[in-house]
Amino acid sequence: MRRMLRAGVPALVVALVAAGCTFGSEPTTRGTTSARPEPGAAPGPTWRPCDDVADDLVGPAAARARVRYQCTTIKVPQDWAAAKASPGASPSGPTFDIAVIRARSERQHDRIGSLLVNPGGPGGSGVDLAVYLSVGAGLGGLPLDVLERFDIVGFDPRGVGRSSPVKCISDADLDATFGYEPDPVSQEEFDGLVDLARRIGQTCGAKYGDSLRLYSTEQAARDMDAVRAAVGDAKITYLGYSYGTLLGATYAQLFPTHIRALVLDGAVDPQQDLVAASESQAKGFERAFSNFAAWCRENRSDCPIAPDARTAVTAALDKARSSPARGRDGREATAGWVFYAVISSLYSESGWQRLASAIARLETGDPDEVFELADSYAERRPDGTYSNLFDAFSAVGCADSDEVPSLAEIRKLQSQWRAKYPLFGAPQAVGLLSCALWPGKRDPVPTGPAKGAPPIVVVGTTGDPATPYEQTARLADMLGVGVVLTWQGEGHTAYPATRCINNAVDRYLIDLKVPRKGLTCPAR
Asked: Is 195 part of the annotated catalytic residue set?
């Protein structure tokens, strides 16, 4: 299991027949935060209609929502420090391409500016998220009050998706990683996982060399300011989920006076080292699983593995180790695949019933639902190929980490965390091997206050497995201008989840009204 697991995007209900949407005239721009071009600045980007991107992701939902999509690509220096470039200027030297999408409601009025979004990961596509969020509240997107006042802008960070993607892990090695024993107890099993992680690191190092450090969060945060300049906003309005909170916090430290409003949902504490962050996540997933097990006991008609879900899942893992079931695609449902099906389902309370169903079906020898859940998490396609999510995850996460444990320390942590967090501790410990054996120089994220920034809203969910709630106040305190908003719910990230959360965040984004100190929203 990886550190800083990615955020999920809102669930969407889409029809089977695709339909495009067209671009009309430019909307009104009253009350905007648009900036005038600086003298000598590079020409602005050329935007082109890109309905096809939305069609591929959500089909006719975008057209029904009356949203228009435009895309562009901007070039940024591969190394901002070496290039000494500024946002809006034409970069010199080697560049990366950054893919950007703009979603604009046909109902837009009194436009404030752009709302830049990031889904987390690292490795998640901001282009995809902008489409998902723009379809409207009825389909799991943003509230209409927000959609009608902002362009929703997403970008794939450097190395991700459509933006000069880093790709160096083979599909076979990803299959091996996800299918591997999550808690390799014997030395032979542990050494096998070490060999796999070392091979992946060597392959990526051979392909990218010292340039691996250029995929760091600080470099991507500087790209964010280039995106701000490209859309013409004098100040940024930003919504970041999960790892996107780390990206936003880094931006706030680098460009505090360029901020209009920042919402950081599912907080990552930048001050934690790699080991502390991994243990925090092990604790978070263990807590989330206990909440799932309690739900099973109380809702036996909806949970076919009730009354003891923990025993059922533990038994399923043990059986997968000795006699894994074979799916319709020929894969064996090893303990690794079962484990990632569990991980995938804990990101949202809406996934609990499906997890129970998948484990119950596995007990009868049918692992296909287990594979569906695990493949969704891994972004594994039906043909066995993968997106570059986890290539980027490793490149970014490891570039950000300058201190990594030794193999002996990881082996010791595996034993210690197994005792403390029975299902998730040991897998989280051995997940440290990825960065421990990753090549190249590092570029750690900055940690410090955002001096000169306006109030920043930091949202935390008490039942969040991937970014445990305890990190919320720590991130807010580090920034110095953070205001904590709490949701007493389950799953990873909170907005838009309930009326209370939506009202608080919407008023901040639109009117810059900061939530009152200590505001806590109930689960429902």
From this structure: no
pLDDT confidence of residue 373: 98
Q: What are phi and psi of 438, to 5 degrees?
A: -85, 135
- Where do the domains of the chain lie? 48-155+216-270+446-521, 171-208+274-400+403-436
- Selecting among 156, 391, 400, 464, the annotated active-site residue is 464
Question: Annotated catalytic, 242?
Answer: yes
Q: What sections of 153-242 are H helices per DSSP?
A: 171-179, 187-208, 217-231
Pick the catalytic residue from 183, 375, 492, 506.
492
Report, as an integer, the average pLDDT of 206-232.
Answer: 97
The CA-atom distances, in angstroms, between 249 and each of 3, 135, 174, 178 are: 18, 27, 30, 31
Q: pLDDT by residue (tens digit) across 246-264?
A: 999 999 999 999 999 999 9
Please indicate whether residue 492 is annotated as part of the active site.
yes
Look up the CATH number of domain 48-155+216-270+446-521. 3.40.50.1820
Please say if the pLDDT value at position 36 is more than 90.
no
Which 3 state secondary structure label does DSSP give 58?
Answer: helix
Residue burial 41-51, b: 16+ Cβ < 10 Å; e: rest:
ebeebebeebb
Asked if the bond preceding 307 is cis, omega within 30° of 0, the reply is yes
Q: Give the active site residue among 242, 278, 348, 434.
A: 242
Looking at the DSSP assignment, which residues form a beta bridge with residue 236? 259
pTM greater than 0.85 (yes/no): yes
Q: What is the mean pLDDT of residues 349-356?
A: 96
Residues 6+ apart with CB under 8 A from 153: 100, 101, 102, 103, 114, 115, 116, 117, 130, 227, 231
pLDDT on residue 76: 96
Strand order, beta sheet including 67-77: 48-49, 67-77, 95-105, 150-155, 113-118, 236-241, 259-265, 456-463, 482-490, 520-521
Nearest-CA neighbor of 231 among 88, 19, 28, 132?
Answer: 88
pLDDT in tens, 367-426: 999 999 999 999 999 999 999 999 999 999 999 998 999 999 999 999 999 999 999 999
Residue 523: CB atoms within 10 Å? 14
